[in-house]
Amino acid sequence: MRVSVFKPIAEPDVFKTKLLNWAQQFREIVFLDSNNYPQQYGSYDCVLACDAFTSLKTDFHNAFEDLKQYQQQTKDWLFGYLSYDLKNDTEKLHSNNFDGLHFPDMFFFQPKKLFLLKGNDLEIRYLNMCDDELEEDFEEIVENQMAIAEFSTVMPIGVEVRQRISKERYLQKVNEMLIHIHRGDIYEANFCMEFFAENTQIHPIEIYQKLNAISEPPFATFFKNNTDFLLSASPERYLRKQGSKIISQPIKGTAKRLFDEELDNQSKIELSLNPKERSENIMIVDLVRNDLSHTATKGSVEVEELCGIYTFKQVHQMISTIVSTVEESTSPIEIIRTTFPMGSMTGAPKISAMQIIEELEETKRGLYSGAVGYFTPDNDFDFNVVIRSILYNSKEKYISFSVGSAITAESKPESEYEECLLKSKAMREVLLG
Questions:
Q1: Nearest to 398 by CA among 201, 164, 230
Q2: Which residues are designated catalytic?
Q3: Is the pTM of the predicted complex or chain greater than 0.85?
Q4: Which region holds residue 338: left if phi is over 0, alpha if psi is between -120 and 50, else beta?
């Protein structure tokens, strides 16, 4: 079904930029970059899938069943996304909030052209129907001289970014959430707000490259489906399947980086000992353990690492790793369906948290707090969490990014607001120029 060719790559980082530039000619692109971040469960340093042969685009209704059939029929590499609103397919929930982006709830495609980079080794896998284009495409990529500097002249700098919820309303809404927590409706919920710009044009590849350079996260993504774009600097993995092993790595707990090395180390230590951040993380670990148990073989759900501290360019994060084992006959779609949306972006108990989130938030989340990733022909998969991301509908000239924080009984509304502003910093910087 696919022709596979291997090529040595002398300068992988330069090649990645050329690869992404070359891909812009196609209607569908998924470009995934791990930014050489050291991680136990990494697979490739960079992946590019482009040019759909077949695709699946649908709203939430019956979406997981449609995806299951599509995945079983193609038995091939599939790339795409799951939006947060697929919760309405698995539970009696709804999404009635404002939506300025109008992305489909789910989109996957089977790429004609696929590039898998690991170290200095590139594997190119083309569908048989277009394998005669492989060598010519590779030459074109290698000879591509276009650099980011050429984009800077075409786009105006300084997008007018507005906040959907004012600070006063934000504080009021967090207090309402705290009432739910003290009443015992929920223990924790992730509350998000949107920043947006209307009637604005940006150059997606330029914005993506600048955003990625600020954070250099392990799950960076450039996604394009015609006029829909996701430019993501996500540090978080949602779910990975590696053979019979399932890996979930929720992030809960954030501290800012400091310029002074000693103070920066102190910031890390304080995060690791912070009782509020630890309790947030542990609540989500329990939720993930419960989610994974739906498809796990008996007794196989384990916490491999609890509240580990990981350092990124802008922030320190608290990350836990929960694993399980599944039977070979278990459908990969079922594993996703029973764990989606991810615990770190919802709350505990999950369904109550999602109902309260819907009441208090003012924007339909859509792809934000959903997941982007891929399925392999042998039923493995890897998906990120869509956070620290800019979403752009170029047809409607609408730009959106959202940020959120976990509200628990210990939360102080003012501190949660400050955390949201910290998380929005990179996106604002990139758009404001």
A1: 201
A2: 236, 252
A3: yes
A4: alpha
